Amino acid sequence: MTVREKRYGFLRANALSLAFGAVFLVTLVGQALSGMADQNAQQATEGLEPVSLLDYVTSSSFGVDVMENWQSEYLQFFLYVFATVWLVQRGSAESKKPGEEGTESDREQRIGRHSDDDSPAWARTGGLRTAVFSRSLGLLMGALFLLTWTASSIAGWAAFNSEQLGQRQDPVGYLGYLGEADFWNRSFQNWQSEMLAVGSMAVFSVYLRQRGSPESKPVGVAHAETGQTG
Questions:
Q1: Hey, how many other C-beta atoms are within 10 angstroms of the C-beta on 171?
Q2: Fewest C-beta atoms under 10 Å: which of 100, 129, 166, 229?
């Protein structure tokens, strides 16, 4: 840690995560309030009693909407983390340079005897712990995707059966719901948008710039330069 970094207080040193955390909470509350208002408008149209905020945020309807978005985001990062190990996009700030595909050598990754004094402990030890730590980001993204996908499917199942009962139709079992068009329609709606977003970012960063952002190449760098950040 440099002297300049030591002078930074907690808030300034963690401003990016704190800012996005705050925006996340604001938008989640916004989703809850607007979703409740929308549901109560439908309730009034059907001559039913309005629901409270607590009832709405604990409902399967709210749960499935939230989990569908979360699981698609984690799927995006899970695929991107692993795909960028082996796949490149020439000229993109989001890609390694052509010819550098793969997991790289221990020296390049500073593993084992090539580690630095301040390297994480599991990067220095070698063996299974280093192997797991070397893939921990992708493994975590994959685990979070599976957890949120499971939560999404359960909430979607509950919401689907609620609609079935409201229409005087028989509810379906969980495995039966996984074969329903409703479940896959919800899933693919979210997945395709995430694939479009991450693919677009990889291509747009070839030709466009955002001065000062590590997600962009320096403004004056040639379009063909790959893997540089500004």
A1: 14
A2: 166
